[in-house]
Amino acid sequence: MINGILTFYSGLLNGLVEVWAHKFRSLLSMMGIILGVAALVAMVGVVRGMIGEVRDYFERTGGITRLQVESREPPDEQSHIAHLSPGMTFRDVEAIQAGGTLIDLIDPEVSLGWRRYTYAGQSEHAPLQGVMPDRRERLQLQMREGRYIGDLDVEWASPVIVLGGWLGDLFFPNGGAVGQKIHVHGQTFRVIGVLENLGGPESRGWFQRQNRICYIPITAAMKRFSGDDRLSNLSVRVAEVAFLDDALAQMENILIQTHRGIEDFAVSTMEEQLEEFRRMERTFTFALGGVAGISLLVGGIGIMNVMLAVINERIREIGVRKAVGARGSDIFIQFLAEAVVISVVGGLIGMMASVGFVVFIREVIDVEQFRIALSPPAMVAGFLFSAVIGIASGIYPAVRAARMNVIDALRYE
Fold first, then answer.
1. In this structure, which of 131, 258, 378, 389 has its CB flanked by the most CB atoms within 10 Å?
2. Which domain covers residue 25, as residue numbers?
3. Calpha distance 62→296 (Å, rounded)
């Protein structure tokens, strides 16, 4: 046992000496390992960034406790009476408030698209939405200045507005927005608050889009812009996850009444969406990781070729060692250790290269839609995989060296 450890240690030292003595050849043999590890880490970073953005959106919009109401075509047997349904309207909200005992938050929306905002000679375009006070809690919005829309604002259809952080920065860079009047598509609104930017000053993706949205009371949106009580969106939050199925049934019962028996709506949970996110993450990880794995396998083949060439160069040395008493297992361990050195050194260089690769992607390529971050587990996995590849690629050359006939080796010129 001790002899084997000493032989392996000696092989590691010999491997380092060989790598240093033949730098260019060793670098070429490591190139597949280096590129494979760097590609694996970078690709996992890209996937984590993409999925992380989606996950942030999922959690910010209510997570697993959210129920989403969507309009849909009624079934064929109801198509001839579909006109009897008023569609998704504010009456749905009032019915849920009255009978939705398992619902603790209601967030309807009237989406008014992009509108023109004018203040002190400046004009900008940004999305405008009519909402209720629960929107702030569902999206965890923070106020930079002033207050959010209140129940009385909704009841009186008050002409008040809460500016998104992006527009607040443009119109009121030094603060003082509260109480000011701005014009929104020809209508005058009084600013009651400015939202804090989500995701920090360099927000991207969903956070960046969210920071542009401005809010007015939902009743003011209906009265001043849309002219009716139709909703663009309706989300609710269940009090507890354990009540999810019961709340779903309760919502469907309420809406079937407000829609006069017409099933032109669908109430969906976020469980399917969450599972879809997870499935997408696994698919991307395995697909992109597989590409990097192929690079590592190619690197292993390169190491095997180099080790076979090294053995051909050192046939007489092998013969001499066997002649003075070295066993086949000693020869095997020595050359296997040398292969491991090449792969491990390549893996370490690959880990360092992956850092530069990720920085390059982050700084040079346009990645506004998602983050790219280093993944320590991916770096460790890439390094361990490179070590395994080194062992696997070194076995055949080491076996060939161990089985070499001592007489033939000594006669080799």
1. 389
2. 2-58+276-411
3. 41
